[in-house]
Design a protein that fits this description.
By secondary structure, the protein is of the alpha/beta class. The chain is about 30% helix and about 20% strand.
Length: about 140
């Protein structure tokens, strides 16, 4: 059986269903680690984490996200109360900003963290770091 790993933001969540309709699912195990609101650091890190824990899949599809999204890896014991943009793994609790004007703006705790990471005087803030994640994976 071939393993096909898919990772992306919310746009990637239904991809395994669409891919299985086109490519079939008889001989393919579809593994979808996509999560809403996440950016490219999450996508790259989840790929490397998966490979480290489960080995190299036969196929990988990465649906990279917007360049303005920032993802923070916390210890898995850390949870942000009343915040949906989180994805727990065996190693981390990932917290997504959702972008420059994302869901983090409704969370007082995250406003204190992300406000320093988004340079309000420039549109370029996290773009270079996000591009770095894409090239790191390639």
């Amino acid at each position: 059986m071939k393993k096909c790993l898919l990772i992306g933001c919310s746009n990637g969540i239904p991809l395994h269903k669409q891919f299985s309709k086109f490519f079939g699912s008889e001989d393919v195990e579809w593994i979808n680690l996509s999560a809403s609101g996440f950016g490219n650091r999450y996508i790259t890190s989840r790929l490397f984490e998966y490979v480290d824990e489960s080995g190299i899949p036969d196929y990988v599809y990465l649906q990279y996200s917007g360049l303005s999204r920032i993802d923070l890896p916390f210890d898995p014991k850390v949870t942000i109360p009343d915040y949906g943009g989180q994805s727990k793994t065996n190693r981390r609790n990932w917290v997504a900003s959702g972008g420059r004007n994302g869901s983090w703006l409704a969370c007082d705790m995250l406003k204190k963290l992300f406000a320093y990471m988004y340079d309000i005087t420039s549109e370029k803030g996290p773009y270079d770091l996000s591009l770095h994640e894409i090239f790191l994976t390639i």
